[in-house]
Amino acid sequence: MMDGMVKTIRQALEKNGFKNTLIMSYAAKYASAFYGPFREAAESAPAFGDRHSYQMNPANAEEALREVGLDIEEGADIVMVKPALAYLDIIRRVKEKYHVPVAAYNVSGEYAMVKAAGQKGWIDEKRVVREILTGVRRAGADLIITYHAKDLLLPRV
């Protein structure tokens, strides 16, 4: 999220009587190669350049903690770390430092890798998915957004 966005949203909600409405902030969104499959499917890949100017450097953990803190100060109730797998340490550090609900977004590239390996017979897909999501939860995520949700919830026929 852009700096000041949470505050603007919070003020607008409260001004219009929505005082108990939760805000989940994309507080720590890293510039990641794991977004590729979604961008391709949604035809939303940048026409030129990249999105690194407003997404975090994958090597910078301190920036994530600062951005999360700013969003909480502005009124965020839940903070998100995106993507999940390569940033389990960030999920843990956010949870330990701020004690607020943390969401983790298990993005399309993470999903696609597991799906492809499962289709090739290289892994037990169902076990790997449960192991990955358990690890995300163990790292400190209170909420997990994942493309695997349907597969986990629906019985196989």
Give a description of the structure.
About 45% of the residues lie in helices and about 15% in strands. With about 160 residues, the chain is α/β, with parallel strands linked by helices. A four-stranded parallel beta sheet has the order 1-2-3-4. β2, α4 and β3 (about 100-105) form a beta-alpha-beta unit. The chain starts with a helix and ends with a helix.
Q: Which whole number gives the mean pLDDT?
A: 86
DSSP helix fraction: 40-55%
Number of helices: 7
The portion of residues forming beta strands comes to 5-15%
What radius of gyration results from the CA coordinates?
A: 17 Å
- Helix/strand-derived category reads alpha/beta
Map the helices and strands.
Blueprint: H1 5-15, E1 24-29, H2 36-41, H3 61-74, E2 78-82, H4 88-98, E3 102-106, H5 108-119, H6 125-139, E4 143-146, H7 149-153
Parallel strand pairs: 1-2, 2-3, 3-4
Helix pairs in contact: 1-3, 3-4, 5-6
Salient structural properties:
globular; 7 helices; four-stranded parallel β-sheet
What is this structure, in a nutshell?
With 157 residues, the chain is an alpha/beta fold.
